Amino acid sequence: MRDLMKSYTIEVRLAVVLALICVGLSIAAPQFATLPNATSLLNNSAVNLIWAVGLLVVLIAGGIDISFAVASSVVQYVAAKMLMAVGGGNWVLGFLFCGSLGILLGLLNAWLIHGFRIISIVVTIATFNAFFGLLMFFSGGRNIYNLPDWWTARIFIFEHENAQGVWSELTLSVAVMIGCVVATWALIRRTNIGRQLYAFGDNPEGARRAGVNIAVMQGVAFGWMGLMAGIAGLCQVNIVKEVVPNALYGRELDVLAAVVLGGARLGGGKGTILGCVLGVMFVAITQNGLNLLGVSPFAFQMIIGAAILIAISTSNIDLSQVLRKKEVRS
Amino acid sequence: MTTASAERFALRLHKVSKAFGGVQALNKVDFEVRAGEVHCLAGENGCGKSTLIKVVTGVHRPESADLIELFGQRIDRITPVQARELGVSVIWQDLALFPHMSVAENIAFDDLVGLRPKSVRYGEMTTRAGKVLERLGVRMELGAPLHSLPIAQRQVVAIARALMNDAKLIFMDEPTASLTQSETDRLLDIVRKLSAQGVAIVFVSHRLAEVLEIAERVTVVRDGNLVGVYPTEGMTQARLGELMTGHHIENDVSARDLPDAPVAFQARGLSRHGEFHDVDLTIKAGEVVGLTGLIGAGRTELAHVMMGMRRADSGDMQLNGAPYRPKSVRAAIEQGMAYVSEDRLSLGLLQKQSIADNTVISVLRKLTSVTGLISESRKADLVRHWIKELGVKIGAPEDPISTLSGGNQQKVVLAKWLATDPKLLILDSPTVGVDVGARAGIFRIVRQLADEGLAILLISDEVTEVMHNSDRILHMADGRIQQEYDPRTISVPQLEERIYA
Hints:
The complex is a heterodimer.
Chain A: H1 2-7, H2 9-28, H3 35-60, H4 68-85, H5 91-115, H6 120-139, H7 149-152, E1 156-161, E2 167-171, H8 172-190, H9 192-202, H10 204-209, H11 214-240, H12 251-261, H13 273-292, H14 297-315, H15 319-329
Antiparallel strand pairs in A: 1-2
Chain B: H1 3-8, E1 9-20, E2 23-34, E3 38-42, H2 49-56, E4 67-70, E5 73-74, H3 80-86, E6 88-91, H4 103-108, H5 122-136, H6 151-164, E7 169-173, H7 181-196, E8 200-204, H8 208-214, E9 217-222, E10 225-231, H9 237-245, E11 263-272, E12 276-284, E13 288-292, H10 299-306, E14 314-319, E15 322-324, H11 329-334, E16 337-340, H12 344-348, H13 355-360, H14 376-390, H15 406-418, E17 424-428, H16 436-451, E18 455-459, H17 463-469, E19 472-477, E20 480-485, H18 492-500
Parallel strand pairs in B: 3-8, 3-9, 6-7, 7-8, 13-18, 13-19, 16-17, 17-18
Antiparallel strand pairs in B: 1-2, 1-4, 4-5, 9-10, 11-12, 11-14, 14-15, 19-20
Helix pairs in contact in B: 5-6, 15-16
């Protein structure tokens, strides 16, 4: 148990705080702890979670990505155009197409970073602007409503009607999100490739000397992020049923903040799936709670910002050391 | 090759040459290591030691070589992968470990390398790592993240990692540079254990005492040429230093009496809870006082209080006869204190900045012109003065400090402090990672500064260092000054016995 506390300090702390918030909200807002609210929370968080696990992989490998949200928009737009051109396609084709296009965009980032030895934040700010600029130029900023039927169809993996006749539903995106979370966990925790990603992020020179293929690691990290961005783009269309070119612009920083909140280290080498999920859910639940409490939406950003600052500045304080000091003194 | 040599030698190199550009890094060097032997590779920085290691591990390809033989197997061209598969392993000074990974994963990491996807079995990994540590006779929490361990234990993790790859020949580059004496002793025990198990170890170290203690034979290289191979039995530190540098090194006790010199610094009853107690310390102008003892004795903590980094709980200090109670490091510096810290690389120097900027950082305020901005010409003058004064070997003052050798970096640290015109200079382990020739150079400067009237407190783990360079030696243990010694009336072994008893 002490070992668990030691290696998962941030996760344990975040879980405790999150549990307290949930208890508090259940008392303060009666609608909070209801099945319809819980399912809608999950539905609304699915896209963010898919991005978050992708970004986690990049952070673990010592990089950062700013371009993933607009990459999702690019994937959506190109997929909508291409799928309509081939007669509409289906889910399988959609996944294949969006996934591979996402991977390509991710590999473009990886190639620029590795091939020209430019740091990832500079590369991805550049590609963020380039992707968005190209998208706005070619789309003219116009939304696409003319989408294949399968893509906009509502598919539920769970449905329940309560006594008052209110429906609780989980959408397909939640199932996809769970798949992405599990796959990412398996990659970073259970495969040698994932462990090499951690090593590369932790000590790049040490990893290089041990024979880790650095180019491939960059490709895996940003390729995985791209894959997640492609899948997130596909899911987001299924939720909103249209392609809005600038809909996802700006979402990247919220996701980044949530992942860092979950304990991923910006320097690389550290971060867990559990922490990442908790980080995203922390932001989502706080926002949801404030909403239910009738707090002005303008206050959301401020409160979330403050919560992140507090969480990150206190996460550097080692609680076990504080406790030990007290023991010595007493 | 004959089977006899296969049994006897882990490594044989004959007439290996390697040049970089116009510089002959290795010139027809022979190097042989017997199986299970502890062998020392000695030489000053830049003598070709690292090149030799890199040839053996396949990082560099030699221009010419009559023979390269590993474990009795003749090899035309070594690649890094082949070297590792044959059982050659190098533990570099920076260890190349992963701080956020667990001890077990660090030890077993090389099994994970490669692009063919494999699943990770943590249980098996932990068991195997535990077995290797058992072989070394060490117990460690296998699940703890590496960064939670002290450097000495990380060193052990690096050794365990090499053994995990079935290493039969391990090169250790300055393994004891950042270890204390007792940690070093424990490491040397492990090295002996490995040697008894048939693993050959090539030890690269600047600490000659330790080289003579651990190695059976020593190969000396100077300027890319082989000087010779010597048994350590009967070898002295002074002789080894001469072979390495090619010069005679003054290694005599240099203590003097200074009956008439005024007192520069005095501390009476200085205490800080849990660190040191009731310390009385007097340093005269022009005197070098050596302060030695084991780590944790309170030496560095005492220096920190003298520098105003922490406050003493009780007792008082005087500097040049006036009460001295520094409220901050800045106040201490202004009153004439200077402190060359023990961790030069991270605390003493801004590694990415230029030599010039590092030299003037402590006196920036003195360099401002009427505009309030830094005068480039005054800065250049000051830098030129100190580089000349201390004989720092540099390319250009604008080069980053990281391009200098350890000895020259330490001289820049000295220059930085001397530029503040101090009255008392504290040197905390000033020769860690500095080679023999450069050490002599640094102590020549220290002696010269003392002759000019500077009071110096020399803190060091190394008994020989304080013996040869101080006027008086104070032995500190458990936070108290235990005893004062005169270097002229005690020998190194006697002093060592008192300290390590």
